[in-house]
User: Fold site-specific DNA-methyltransferase (adenine-specific) from Salmonella enterica.
Amino acid sequence: MTVSKKSKSNILHLDIDAFIAKARNIIHEVYHNKAILSVPDYQTKTAANDQDYITKPLTPLYAWAGGKRRLIKAYRPYMPDFKRIRYYAEPFFGAGAMFCEVFNQHREHIRSYHLNDINPEIINLLNTIKRDCSGFIDELKTIEERNHYKTLDGKKNFYYRLREEYRSLPAGAEYSVRGTAMFYFLLNNMFRGLYSQKNGRIFTSFQTNKNGFDYENIKNWSTALQKAVITCGSYEDVKVNKNTFLFCDPPYRDCSIMYSTDFNDEQHKQCYAWVQKKVEEKKTVGMLCNKNLNDGFFSSLPTTTESEHINIEYSHTKARVGANRSIVELLMVFKEKMAVPVLKAA
Assistant:
């Protein structure tokens, strides 16, 4: 520890860094525990964690109706022991709130991530950010420069002009870096995160994005995605290894607006069975989300794993005035196989 004293002052001046280093050494010597003062530091970069280096925690790239950002805290008690987890698989990506949680809190345990969605525009966005982040940001800034309007009407008119421009691109051009930046701009200014399509391309109404674009977050996503396998297809094609945390958030039974294909009750049954099959085969942990419609649908399905059905009630802040703002989310957690199949009540 270094202490300096000015000749004409009685005030001591401490070398704070040296003081903290000395304090750490004393505690380490007493407790023989090198990690006793360890805290998450997103700006520490070493050879060991270079590939995972980010400047701040990831947040979803866009708003998404049905996204799980507000529910993550309620999910945490039911998540697996990540000391045993080496892989993460998310067959219905949406906006990836759970991926953000796993990467932010547990990435030191994860070797790779498998991110999948049936929406080709979303998957192309992820691949573009992964492979050409700087080019993507340049194109996005160019669009922002074009959107110089100060009034809400001006911004609204620009949104619809850009939407028409995007929808008029030649087939395949929507997957260029420029086309992807156009899509992302539209995605970040769409009405209440309610994604909809017409003829295979985004067709959502306007709602201004008051926060602008977080370029630092986009760059951090590019870093995080370097360890991700990104695919576009059926959830059934997602590879699940041993020691995988499998998180499934399919379209809810009462909602088809955000999904480009139907997902009926028979498909929900198949998805329910598929999650259990993967949990049984790989002896790992699976989570399946849906809305509890109080009709006993999921409780009537055969359960061949150790399972738990949890009702999570939360307030929908964007519900219309006079509507019932309370929503009951059903979280189903599946663990290693039980000896005898049982039926679990919701």
Notes: Residues 1-38 form one domain.
